[in-house]
């Protein structure tokens, strides 16, 4: 039985119409808290690493571009909260494939911790040499995020990046958008900011 707390058809309509959607209270509060507890536990164990940009041999830490730290969920796949989250995200993937025919095959995702002052400059989520990433997912774990604390994702809505939407990183909010279409950035956070960030990937036969 799904734990999704929203109308999947309405989400599919929004993705088809705009290419993005913001869903408050997407998952049960108990699951959000369990994910937060898991994230903080592995953070305190020192299991995260500083996030890099690029891929393969071009991957490097560039602190002027991003200053968060990450831990891939497959490293903590046995945690009950991670299993429940992955099951919920599978439900979304199957619905998107049925309704929008995107050919999604898997989800890669990680916990992301932004310490106070951390940010991620404007970027696209699809690599130039790898077009598998299709739909970006961001799920927030910050209960009672205060106004003025920063840390919003700024989603640019047009090609010129002149129109944008700032999305508060409030616990339980799920953001979905097409990975190759929307430039976005994470504004500097004034306190620790937690999320689960991921990408639904489609199958690709491209040989690099």
UniProtKB/TrEMBL annotation:
Cofactors that this protein relies on: L-ascorbate
Domain of life per record: Bacteria
Residue ranges of domain Prolyl 4-hydroxylase alpha subunit in the record: 18-201
Keywords: Dioxygenase, Oxidoreductase, Vitamin C
SMART domains in alphabetical order: P4Hc
The protein's name: 2OG-Fe(II) oxygenase
Source species of the chain: Vogesella aquatica
């Amino acid at each position: 039985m799904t734990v999704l707390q929203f109308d999947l058809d309405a989400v599919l309509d929004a993705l088809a119409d705009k290419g993005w959607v913001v869903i408050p209270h997407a998952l049960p509060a108990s699951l959000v808290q369990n994910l937060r507890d898991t994230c903080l536990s592995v953070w305190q164990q020192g299991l995260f690493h500083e996030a890099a940009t690029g891929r393969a041999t071009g991957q490097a830490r560039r602190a002027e571009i991003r200053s968060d730290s990450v831990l891939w969920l497959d490293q903590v796949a046995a945690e009950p909260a991670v299993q429940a989250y992955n099951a919920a995200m599978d439900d979304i993937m199957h619905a998107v494939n049925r309704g929008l025919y995107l050919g999604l095959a898997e989800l890669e995702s990680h916990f992301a911790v932004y310490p106070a002052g951390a940010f991620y400059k404007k970027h696209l989520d699809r690599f130039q040499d790898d077009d598998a990433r299709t739909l970006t997912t961001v799920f927030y774990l910050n209960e009672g995020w205060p106004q003025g604390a920063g840390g919003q994702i700024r989603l640019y809505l047009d090609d010129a990046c002149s129109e944008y939407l700032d999305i508060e990183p409030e616990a339980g909010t799920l953001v979905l958008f097409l990975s190759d279409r929307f430039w976005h950035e994470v504004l500097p956070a004034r306190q620790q900011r937690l999320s689960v960030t991921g990408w639904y990937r489609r199958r690709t036969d491209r040989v690099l």
